[in-house]
């Protein structure tokens, strides 16, 4: 139950900061969660934004049952200008439990993922058929590592993130990009496609298809959807869930999170 207490604590802090740091006249918070499609919007200059969440994945085969729990993933942003934001990613992944029917082995692990830093750079605003577009680049840092998830070199990843306004209440967003790991130089290519809909001034929803494609490996395609609730212009709650479309993907997954922004 520790992870539940941890998430409650994070949400409480988020509410507090959102309330005391609310900025009148600013547009509503735009986040990169809960979907996998990163948004092209830049955090307003001089503001911090924290997007934090919990995720549970379940996968079952003829010989094993695997549960992957991300106790906390936190994306911390800071607006440098109207064209750029600084980004820091910290994740604590734990309780990877494997149950093997033949041997009844039960394994548990918990560790931090390598810390990643990066930037989001605005490329252009939406104009006709041209989408609103930004470029996101990150690197995993070798100086920040733990025994379970070591990286001995800088590991890059990037995405182009784009969005179209379909109507006053609907939008279409998509990403394309690639990422590498510390073991192989073969890139994993990423795609996402999201249809978002505003249900009211507070509620929003989305459906999404996305996947990961690596040469000489089975493709990992998934589908998910979720809801967001705007507590204030500077604080948003979310819940999401989905399932795998191919054998390489997990059978199902769910997540909850809180995002908030405040002045330094």
Mind explaining what this structure looks like?
This protein is 7% helix and 57% strand. With 264 residues, the chain is mostly beta strands. The chain has one domain: Porin (Beta Barrel). The longest helix is centred in the first third of the chain and has 19 residues. The protein is globular, with a radius of gyration of 19 Å. About 2% of the residues have low confidence.
Write the layout of secondary structure elements.
Blueprint: H1 2-20, E1 47-60, E2 64-81, E3 84-100, E4 106-107, E5 110-112, E6 116-124, E7 132-140, E8 155-165, E9 170-179, E10 188-198, E11 203-214, E12 220-232, E13 235-244, E14 252-263
Antiparallel strand pairs: 1-2, 1-14, 2-3, 3-4, 3-5, 3-6, 6-7, 7-8, 8-9, 9-10, 10-11, 11-12, 12-13, 13-14
Question: Which second-level CATH architecture applies?
Answer: Beta Barrel
Order of the strands making up the biggest sheet: 1-2-3-6-7-8-9-10-11-12-13-14
- How many separate structural domains? 1
Shape: globular
Q: Whole-Å distance between the termini? A: 32 Å
Number of strands: 14
Describe the main β-sheet briefly. 12 strands, antiparallel, barrel
Give the proportion of residues in helices. under 10%
Order of helices and strands: HEEEEEEEEEEEEEE
- What percent strand? over 45%
Provide a compact summary of the structure.
InterPro entries: FApF (IPR025737). This is Transporter. The protein is mainly beta.
Keywords:
14 strands; Porin; 1 helix; mainly beta; 264 residues; 57% strand
